[in-house]
UniProtKB/TrEMBL annotation:
This is Late embryogenesis abundant protein LEA-2 subgroup domain-containing protein. Pfam families: LEA_2. Residues 83-173 form the Late embryogenesis abundant protein LEA-2 subgroup domain. It comes from Parapedobacter indicus. It comes from the Bacteria. SUPFAM superfamilies: LEA14-like.
């Protein structure tokens, strides 16, 4: 019986220590500063989105992969969002896994889960690549939000410099307890106002 009690105590201590360490790193992550840097290798139903925009083509509904996706209600989007994270504290910041959402003008356009761990050492800045892989059928079916985004891209491509759109990247961290996942109660928001200068700087339009 003493052996059982001792074993239980050891396991409880390990679990408690693991959760405390994750919670501390998460609390530090909340104090970090975030900046959306760029979006790379964005493919919609197998087509390079950056090339579409650079060529002035914004009517994605005519793409073969998208047209078929509307029939199956499955339109895959993949890519990488690069986020710069600055840790101003004296503690390690990080998470093992997180859910994310991307919003355009407050309207959700995609969501997913990233299992790529994030670690930001004390006093340092790192650029974290967040891999996207999601179904955007719901977003492409939302004509109001889609039209607003496409109008912004088209006007910017035609030379308008006063056009802007607000993007929000939301992170919901997860604490790992063995095979169990404990979800953080809220989201960490990363806001970015995108304008023509940003699109030109990153080669999205020319």
């Amino acid at each position: 019986m003493r052996v059982v009690i001792l074993a239980f105590s050891v396991i409880s201590s390990i679990v408690s220590c693991t959760l405390d360490k994750q919670a501390k790193a998460l609390r530090t992550l909340e104090k970090c500063r975030y900046e959306f840097v760029s979006a790379d290798s964005i493919f919609l139903a197998g087509t390079d989105v950056n090339k579409l925009i650079a060529n002035g083509r914004v009517d994605v509904s005519q793409l073969p992969g998208v047209a078929l996706g509307f029939l199956s209600r499955d339109i895959p989007l993949s890519g990488v969002l690069n986020v710069r994270i600055t840790n101003p504290t004296n503690n390690l910041a990080g998470i093992q896994q997180f859910a994310y959402k991307v919003e355009v003008e407050g309207r959700e356009v995609l969501d997913g889960v990233s299992d790529l761990p994030i670690e930001v050492p004390a006093g340092e800045t790192v650029v974290v690549p967040v891999k996207l892989r999601t179904n955007v059928y719901k977003f492409l079916s939302d004509r109001e939000t889609l039209d607003k985004l496409l109008t912004f891209i088209q006007r910017t491509h035609n030379g308008a410099t006063d056009e802007k759109v607000n993007l929000t990247f939301k992170i919901k961290p997860t604490l790992a307890l063995g095979n169990q996942a404990i979800n953080y109660p809220g989201y960490i928001d990363i806001d970015k106002e995108v304008d023509a200068e940003f699109l030109i700087k990153h080669g999205i339009i020319r």
